[in-house]
Design brief:
Elements: H1 2-17, H2 23-43, E1 47-51, E2 54-58, E3 63-67, E4 71-75, E5 83-87, E6 92-95, H3 104-121
Antiparallel strand pairs: 1-2, 2-3, 4-5, 5-6
Helix pairs in contact: 1-2
């Protein structure tokens, strides 16, 4: 969020520093800054929080709390964009908070840690 805040401040300052800017121009600069701020805020949202009684998966626009018994398997295959949680109801939930894009080894370690928690507390069928 720091980058979004900095861009919003810079675009707002630029809108007021332009001598020839009209009110509409200023509004466009500030509106663009607000859109960038909101977009970066949305991208910074995903996370996976494991606790004693379950796991909370926060993706771009959704948040879901799961008991350990609801999670059947944790999967992170080569080429996957993020971890997938196979659930007891037969559905799959993406866990965008664990992404191998830039920090592949860290994502694998986090997936393994989540898998170990599922095995300890849940049904124990996982693959990484």
């Amino acid at each position: 969020m720091s980058l979004g805040s900095a861009l919003l401040v810079v675009l707002t300052a630029v809108s007021f520093l332009l001598d020839s800017a009209t009110a509409g121009d200023r509004a466009s600069f500030i509106g663009t800054g607000l859109l960038v701020f909101a977009f970066l805020g949305l991208l910074s949202r995903p996370k996976v929080v494991a606790e004693q009684d379950g796991v909370t998966v926060v993706n771009l626009t959704t948040k879901r709390r799961l008991a350990w018994a609801q999670v059947v398997r944790v999967t992170l295959r080569p080429g996957d964009a993020w971890v997938q949680l196979d659930l007891a109801d037969g559905t799959t939930l993406p866990a965008m908070g664990i992404q191998p894009g830039i920090a592949k080894e860290q994502a694998i370690a986090h997936a393994r840690a989540l898998r170990a928690l599922v095995e300890e507390h849940g049904t124990g069928r996982s693959t990484t």
